[in-house]
Amino acid sequence: MTKRWDVIIIGAGPSGCLVSEILNAAGLDVLLVDAGPRLGIDETAGEPDRRQWPFAVEGSELGNSFDWYRVRAVGGRTHLWGGWCHRIPATALARADWPASARKLGPAYAQIEKKLDVREGLLDERYAKLARDAGLSIVPKRAAMDSPCRAWTPLRWRAARRARSYCVALRFEHARSQALSLCCFDLKREQTMTLQARTFVLAASPIESARVLLASELRGTTARNIGRNFTDHMVASYVLVETLPPPSMGSRGPLSGAALVENFVNLNSKSRRPYPGGFSIELNGPCSLDAFDLERMAPASERAGMRATQIHAIGECYPYQDRYVELDPGRCDAAGQAIPRLHVAWSPEEKILAEDMKQACRNLADALAPKDSKLIKFHDPLTPGNGHEAGTIRMGNPSEPCTPHGQLRALRNVWIADASTWPSSGDRHPTLTVLALALRAARACAASLLKKDA
After folding, report:
1. Mean predicted lDDT score pLDDT of the chain
2. Is pLDDT above 80 for 240?
3. Which of 42, 204, 253, 357 sits 20 to 30 Å CA-CA off 309?
4. Does residue 32 contact residue 163 with C-beta atoms inside 8 Å?
5. How confident is the model at residue 454 (pLDDT cuts 50, 70, 90)?
6. Which pLDDT band holds residue 319 (cuts at 50, 70, 90)?
7. Backbone torsion region of residue 252, taken as left when φ is above 0, otherwise alpha when ψ lies between -120 and 50, otherwise beta
8. Buried b (16+ CB within 10 A) or exposed e, 102-124
9. Given this model, what pLDDT does residue 408 score?
């Protein structure tokens, strides 16, 4: 007899593992699947082989490359992150018309911060002085860390240890607005299989979750918007190199040298800019040159007298009509899936945002360092790539694919627990907000199932 689970969760990244933990605690029978391997705590996640897992990109401004920072492994992109855990402020949620307001998200934020043991560092005096002199809000880094040098991952959770690896979700079989089963491909056995459940949760990442739904050939008004509101962060990244020795790490406090310059545009009429969103800037340093792989910049005899600080701006994007995700039926990956085709473009307003971000980084560098320092550009905001995708299965009013709690309108027993539901990309690192929304979705999903069982 074919087993029928209460819930099948697709994607064992941080949000998938969180949802699994919550639903298991509610007494539900849960299966968590992931397309990649289960790595050890100390293992490094490599970049997926693009020959096995190809994708296509289109756009008039792409140039010769496209960098998609993705991970196919249990734990997801927490294998790559730096632990940053700052809440998206009420102003950013309101201006993008998020149905989940800061007041509604507050309790979920607090519970995730407690579960991950989010800590706040100490603000370096040079950043405190910069804040006073420039009239900026600069706050210490808040982070989830497994150790002083390692950001948190869910790999120690029971859900991650029990996840079924190398299981690629392909599509849903469905009828009458209900998902009946999940068609999968077992990479180890090289065969397709069907998994049945009462309810399903998609937490595979905004592109991969949309891909499963697009392959499922859903119908209806809300289904037409799946893949259409694709957003990501714009990133401007610089490294400031000074001819001064790095400070002794032992003399500094926790999360030393790391701070966040909070958004300072579009807060009021005086800070109004011709784009709707904002941006924050992460500061990290000063450190030795090798902390940023810059040791070849100077002879070994000179490195001890040089230090580096990363200045990393994260810009908020809104949906744009020329940016979306669809399937390319003419090409398939190693699991036989039609590959995702990403349409990438920037609006005229986003190009102004990019210039503002770069200028803000340069201004901070000028304020932090003497004139004989060097500012090296690592990443331009208009360089094509993905790292914090969002918005492909947007939540909101009845015309959007999802309800404010992540329930898919086209398939009422499917819930979305990744950044697919976001109305905008937000103006800072997304992981804390992804988990807060996943917590809300998990609880709504559990309540729906337990109500049916009552």
Report:
1. 93
2. yes
3. 42
4. yes
5. low
6. very high
7. beta
8. beebeebbeebbeebebbebbbb
9. 98
Greatest Cα pair distance, the chain, in angstroms, is: 74
- Structural domain that includes position 280: 4-453
| CA pair distance 275, 269, nearest whole angstrom | 13
Count of domains forming the chain: 1
Provide the 10 A C-beta neighbour count for residue 11: 28
What CATH number is attached to the domain comprising 249?
3.50.50.60
| pTM recorded for the entire structure | 0.96
As a whole number of angstroms, the distance between CA 389 and CA 15 comes to 14
* pLDDT in the model for residue 250: 62
Q: How many other C-beta atoms are found inside a 10 Å radius of the C-beta of residue 165? A: 18
Lowest mean pLDDT, pick from 217-226, 252-261, 267-276, 293-302: 293-302
What is the H or E stretch that residue 207 is in? helix 206-215
**Is the Cβ–Cβ distance between 435 and 408 less than 8 Å?**
no
Burial class (CB in 10 A: 0-12, 13-18, 19+), 360: buried
Per-residue pLDDT at 253:
65
pLDDT band, very low/low/confident/very high, at 251 (cuts 50, 70, 90): low
- 164-to-12, 35, 169, 392 alpha-carbon distances in Å: 9, 9, 12, 26
387: number of Cβ within 10 Å = 17
Res. 64: pLDDT tops 60: no
Under 8 Å between Cβ of 246 and 307: yes
Q: Is residue 30 classed as helix, strand or coil in its secondary structure? A: strand
Cα angle, residue 382 at apex, residues 428 and 278 outer, rounded to 5°: 30
260 closest CA partner among 428, 48, 380: 428
Give CA–CA dist 440/438, Å, rounded.
Answer: 5
